[in-house]
Specification:
By secondary structure, the protein is of the alpha/beta class. It has 2 domains: about 40 residues, no CATH class; about 190 residues, Rossmann fold. About 35% of the residues lie in helices and about 15% in strands. The longest helix has 15 residues.
Length: about 240
């Protein structure tokens, strides 16, 4: 009976994977992405910096950048590099209206969190989006991701941060990103305890650093950062 139902579904409800365009099976796919594409998501190779999560290190110790200028969080991690299938998936989630991807992506983040050894957060907070960009896009992808992750971890989702100005970082040079002013982000209300800060992509780390500082000023005791992907940084000194 299952094979007959599957044949009917494939006949009358044709659907293809949003990434590879292969016909989706009746079962096994998630949010319109086939199992093969989910399995092909790249992961970081080699040791990672335990502080910033960068893969560009020679050992599992803190990288030179974190030793010289420690970031305003306890630890950060990403699922993998922002390339290949990972990049295609993130762009689909951010720019193609596929907010349903937030649930399976949050499940992957929850799995990464549980394997990190980090302490359970008191709240999940997402990097905020300006209202203009949210109006154009129709949703806040980091907020979608944060809410779903909070459900996975069974902790509250909070929105204490606000973002001023246009705030778009896409297409900016690395130097411009690093000059992101502290006034770009602020806290609308106090926070307390251990906070897990969530974003989609970490490039230079300037955005999550500004958010982490705002959370610390608002009362957070410990801050951890978790994102889907990290942009490779050629020439980075480990």
């Amino acid at each position: 009976m299952a094979s007959f139902a599957e044949a009917l579904a494939l006949t009358f409800l044709p659907s293809t994977c949003a990434l590879c365009r292969v016909a989706l099976p009746w079962t096994g796919s998630r949010a319109g992405i086939c199992a093969n594409c989910w399995d092909r998501l790249p992961s970081h190779r080699g040791p990672l910096c335990p502080v910033c999560g960068s893969p560009d290190v020679a050992s599992g110790e803190a990288c030179l950048a974190c030793r010289i200028d420690p970031p305003p969080w306890r630890a950060a991690a990403t699922l993998g590099p922002y390339e290949g299938t990972m990049r295609d998936l993130v762009l689909l989630f951010k720019n193609r209206g596929r907010d349903e991807l937030g649930t399976p992506l949050a499940a992957l983040l929850a799995q990464s969190f549980r394997g990190s050894g980090w302490k359970q957060p008191d709240a999940v907070v997402s990097v905020p989006m300006t209202w203009r960009r949210r109006l154009r896009r129709g949703y806040d992808q980091a907020g979608v991701l944060g809410r779903a992750l909070a459900r996975e971890l069974k902790v509250p989702f909070a929105r204490p941060l606000r973002r001023r100005g246009r705030g778009a970082q896409v297409g900016r040079r690395r130097a411009d990103r690093l000059r992101l002013g502290a006034a770009t982000f602020g806290a609308r209300r106090p926070v307390a305890g251990r906070v897990l800060l969530v974003d989609d992509v970490i490039t230079t780390g300037a955005t999550v650093a500004c958010c982490a500082r705002a959370l610390a000023h608002a009362g957070a005791d410990e801050i951890y950062v978790l994102a889907i992907a990290r942009t490779p940084q050629p020439g980075r000194i480990a």
